[in-house]
Design a protein that fits this description.
The complex is a heterodimer of chains A (116) and B (111).
Chain A (H helix, E strand, L loop, with lengths): L4 E3 L2 E4 L5 E6 L6 E7 L5 E8 L2 E4 L8 E4 L6 E5 L8 E8 L10 E2 L3 E5 L1
Parallel strand pairs in A: 2-11
Antiparallel strand pairs in A: 1-3, 3-8, 4-5, 4-9, 5-6, 7-8, 9-10, 9-11
Chain B lengths: L4 E3 L2 E5 L4 E6 L6 E7 L5 E8 L4 E4 L2 E6 L4 E6 L8 E8 L6 E3 L3 E6 L1
The chains are: A mainly beta (116), B mainly beta (111).
Chain lengths: 116, 111
């Protein structure tokens, strides 16, 4: 059973371009979480999705950021018109139970976004 | 303010020694989890302790939880150089399941 997969592992974009980060949860997991980590910091929650639904996006900036988890395919975190402050490591995690239950979140290796 | 805050921020010990890291949080929790992150890598789940548990063991790891003091500790016994990493505690926000992390303790184990 493969773990959580993220790609690309490293992504370089120039200011104003778009960044698309992909996350494939573990097999059988239908809950996906995205986190952002700045250097020397802990992870900060961004968004929680189930298949075809955004459950909680309270941690995601209102502008330029969007996320989806379609019925088929990976979850996508999309950042439009990137700025230097978007440079960070973006981690995806998945779990089986999600809301209202106690469950372990399994993390992917992350995508390191660098904005030039 | 952060939900989970670890201390110390950095810890340097010799191989074979024990390492203790602490975590404090502010609001009531369902559970508390500890994760390890090697430099430049993803997080590895170490252990989950529920709010009705006081102590839990997993191999060389021992986690305690004191809900009255809103604190937890992670003890790594007989440390190894391979334990060098950052360690984070995380609590769940409400019933949504999204985790709130502290800034972590950076542990360095010297051979």
């Amino acid at each position: 059973n493969a773990g959580v997969m993220q790609n690309p592992r490293h992504l370089v974009r120039r200011r104003g371009q778009e960044a698309r980060l992909r996350c494939s949860p573990m097999k059988g997991h239908s809950h996906v979480y995205w986190y952002r980590q700045l250097p020397e910091e802990g992870l900060k929650f961004m968004v929680y999705l189930q298949k075809e639904n955004i459950i909680d996006e309270s941690g995601m900036p209102k502008e330029r950021f969007s996320a989806e988890f379609p019925k088929e395919g990976p979850s996508i975190l999309r950042i439009q018109q990137v700025v230097r402050g978007d440079s960070a490591a973006y981690f995806c995690a998945s779990s089986t139970l999600g809301q209202g239950s106690t469950d372990t979140q399994y993390f992917g290796p992350g995508t390191r976004l660098t904005v030039l | 303010s952060q939900q989970g805050e670890e201390d110390p921020q950095a810890l340097s010990i010799q191989e074979g020694e024990n390492a203790t890291m602490n975590c404090s949080y502010k609001t009531s929790i369902n559970n508390l989890q500890w994760y390890r992150q090697n430099s430049g890598r993803g997080l590895v789940h170490l252990i989950l302790i529920r709010s009705n548990e006081r102590e839990k063991h997993s191999g060389r790891l021992r986690v305690t939880l004191d809900t009255s003091k809103k604190s937890s500790s992670l003890l790594i016994t007989a440390s190894r150089a391979a334990d060098t990493a950052s360690y984070f505690c995380a609590t769940e926000k409400g019933s949504q399941g999204n985790l709130i992390f502290g800034k972590g303790t950076k542990l360095s184990v010297k051979p």
